[in-house]
Structures are given as structure tokens and as C-alpha cells.
């Protein structure tokens, strides 16, 4: 049996290990030598079923909301060929453990078993390294590490460290924990990264062998997130979005500080004064919802949306804004917006510029400070709806080529087959498309 431990998100250094385009030319050879995301390839139907044990820190037990770590787990556990037997173990919140342990989920060949994971690990991982180091067939997917945490704390300290009410702290703890983490990463044999920059970190900083580091990008259900102007118009009418606005910017997710909402709040207050026809549409909940409401009629706080409203939300806006201060891998909200044909405005973190916003044709990037964010937002205002539509079309094509749940699941499936039998590591096989 093969094991997949789905763990935490990350950021890479500036030197591009996977330089250039995703797939500069036709590829043939050993997939373990691929220096690009596996999503760029077209894999055929799996020649045999797989039995997998998947360990995840969380699993969606209710309707999905924008963002959320648990949304990454199911697509990795079910693939195009539906494995013969799949078992997934996860840890629900402490308050729900007793109830959910008695109510395991079964969906066809998928069996989700909820179990406590109170092992006291500093790594905050689903499968501790001391349990994994002696198991041969273990692969981990990293969704965030202390290298990322250190950068996040640094950005926040630079923004707010001088303000008494915004002391960030924790920077002095980040380096020792990073060193400790680098030491135990070698306990896991195969490492799957969710962005190109992630591979740079593991190879260049964590010093893992190149052949043990692979890139499989996140994906979403592209049948649910599609360009649909009519659904966008319905969404605007339902939520009473003013008809006289010239441009609508949207943001979705948890409205908390490390997601960059103090930064967006200050930047948009400037943009709204200079461009009064611009509206900010906010989907989500958190401490900053009340402060956004203080900005007046240029801001609408919708609160959390039902999952079936998310596609309508993306279709109702002209550009999607992600102000996060966490240099994480691939934010699903960015990918969902791109699938709906919307350009994105996001920080210039390596994980974003190297995988999502590859160039200005896909949207806008900014340094994590107010001045740079204002400049990026004003660039979007100058481009206007028509310019944004052109960028949105490019985003849709890019997302469809790389960020679909089926491409991600197919890549994971081939990766597991490669672990099981080296013959499947060759590409292309006669069954590949």
C-alpha cells in the first residue's frame, strides 16, 4: 500500500529552479526527472487500480467556503479511474471528534475515517516524521512550512511592527524552527510541491535530492467554476449591487490580518477617493468586516456565501483581489476566479508569479505594502472592463490547461503508479494521450 501525507503551504527563493515555461517542448523520459509541473502532461487511463492510505489534517465535513485547507484533500484521494480502495484518515476539530469518529464517511470506494491526531508534534503534520521514516512508500504534499511562516512574519513586521497595537512577534522563534524542520524533512522520501517555487525551496534551501521533489499543482472543479455573465448579473441583482458603478473588485475568504485585509482596507480607501465609481465586493467573514463597512458606499460586505453562490460571485466582479501576506502555494480562490474568466490582483510572491500570474497578461502583482497595492489597483482601473476581460480570457485558458481537479488527480494517480512500479515512470506510455 502507498501512503500520502497531506501536510502544510510554501514559498520559494528568487532563483528559478524550474526556469522558463511549464513545458518548453515535447517531453519524453523519466517523470522523476521532470523539471515542470506534472499537470502539463496528458496521462491516459490508469492500467491498474490503486489502494491508497491518505492522511490529512482536515477533511470537509460541511459545505465548502472560500479558502480552507480541507478543500485540498478530496481531489487528491479520488482520481479519474476511481481507485479500488481508498482510505483517508483525518483529524476533525476537537469539539467534533467524538461525534465524527462514530460517523465515518463512505462514498463508493472512498472510506474517510476520522481519528484524533494528538501526537504533540511541533511540525503540525498529519503523519509525524518519526512514524514515516521507516516506511518505504511514503509521499508528502506540503501546504506550508516554517520558511513561509518566517516570510509572513517578516512582511507583517515591516508593515505594522512599529505600531504598538500591531506587534507581530515570533520572528526570533522562526529561524530555530526552520532549522529543525529542514533536519526532519529528509525522513520523508518523496515530496510533492504545489507550486514551482516550492520545488526551489526543497531543492535549494532544504537540500533534498532533485529526484525526490515533484510539482503537482492544485486544481478545482472546472465544471462548477465557469464564465457565466448571466449568473454574475443575477448575483448583482440579488445582492443589490449598484448599477452605476464603473468597476467592481472582489475579495473572498477569511477577513483576518494575515490575509492582508488591513493592507487592502487602507489601499482601497485611497482608490475609492480617487476613483469613486469603483466598488469593492467582499465575500467572507472575520474581524475586518466591520471596518470595511466603515469605508462607506464604495464597499459591500456580503458575509459568507453558500458554495453554489461562489461562481456567481466571481462572475459578478471585474477583477479578483487577493491581498494575502502569507506567501503560500496556490490559493484556490485565485484559481476559481481564473476559471470564471477573471484576471487576478495578487502579491508578487514567487509562488504566485512563478505559477499563477506568469506575466501581466494574467493580471497584476504588487509588493506587500500599501503604495504598491494602490498602484496595482489603479492599473486595473485604467485598463477598465474591456482590458480586464482580455486578461480574464487569458486567465481562463491558463487555468483550464493547468489548474483542474481532473489534471491534478490524474497526475497524482500516475505519481503513485510510478512509486509502485518504475515502469510507470516512463512518459509517454502507449496509453497516454
UniProtKB/TrEMBL annotation:
Residues 1-16 form the signal peptide. Keywords: Glycosyltransferase, Signal, Transferase. GO terms for molecular function: glycosyltransferase activity. Residues 64-102 are annotated as: Disordered. InterPro entries: Glyco_trans_1. It comes from Actinidia rufa. It comes from the Eukaryota. This is UDP-Glycosyltransferase superfamily protein. Pfam families: Glycos_transf_1. Residues 247-385 form the Glycosyl transferase family domain. The keyword Signal applies. Transmembrane segments: none annotated.
